[in-house]
Amino acid sequence: MILNLAWKNVWRNKKRSLIILAAIVVGLWSGLFASAVMVGLWSSTVNSAVDRNISHVQIHTQEFKKEKLLNNYIPGGMEVIKKLENLNNIKAVSGRVIIEGMASSPSTSVGVNIIGIEPEKEKNVSTIAGYITDGKYFEGIKRNPIVIGQKLADKLGLKVRSKIVLSFQGLDSSITYSAFRVAGIFKTESSVFDEANLFVRQSDIYNALESKPFVNEIAIKLKTTKTLNQTVDSLRAAFPGLVVESWKEIAPELQLTYELMTVEMYIFLAVILAALLFGITNTMLMSVMDRVREFGVLIAVGMKRIYIFLLIITETIILSLVGGVVGMIFGEITILYFSKKGIDLTLFAEGLSSWGISPHLYPELPGYFYAVLTLMIVFTAILAAIYPAVKTVRLQPSKAIRTY
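and the corresponding structure tokens:
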């Protein structure tokens, strides 16, 4: 009975109800879309980092994690890679030789991260091959080809087929020099990455060092991220002497950013709801004042005050939920549209690249967020209704009937 009566009371003054509903819809609509943009921004950053070089899982030795020296390689690394390639959850595996060295051109020298890879295997783990903007991915140069970032090429004054000399500490601690020619130049979302990293073939590194094959790092791409934790746990059990880490452990700042962003989203929506709270309270107070005589009569004929209190609370919840649901529907439609079409931010590409963010943004919002938002709306409605409801139940029937 209370629910039915509350629904009818909400629409007794349609103009007033529609105004506050419009405010709730617009507030939540814009709040949801802004939150989806923030989540999309984070997802873009994570996906770019994972696809670019981090991968889902990495394996190293304890010594390499402490000090990134060339001779801190994975014992039996090639056999480990073969075992990993046979696991069901794993899509692709790439072994890497990681060297901190110097890159020199006729104009200048800079410190770089030299990454030795098997080009075909690396294509299945990272997206560097898809970022080539000039030249080709390890093609066109027969001897010692190298692929470098656009930012690094600009810094060294290099172009395709230019000569570059790499110097680094060998396995026996002696300095090794090796000349390469630029086969391709890549440009990723991260200018910081492009400026500090270059890729060479592992075979060329082994020849320069006159050593047998080895790897310092094993990068793993999973078939689905849903099995990330399970895969990490199983690999740690299978290789107890090695350090197995997920991307969350390799780049904890990305996970921390997401947690902070989630809190910021809730605070952001809470501020919107807090602003709407005063509007809802005002609307309900006006509704109550218009019906003072009616409430006086109900109390006089014996209606319990708790039922009147619940009636006003229910009216407020209905008003808030109707606006909230419509706002969430509009928000979801907008998010779905832009999640497919994307938002073009190429005008800000230079600034975004400093943070490793793609200039093409695709908003998204996790499903649980809507459930939390619904609870927040109900809580806001209850808060907004308390003052009008308390004011109503304190009415004196005789005075209310005579005065209004």
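(Above: one complete record from the training split.) Residues 62-241 form one domain.
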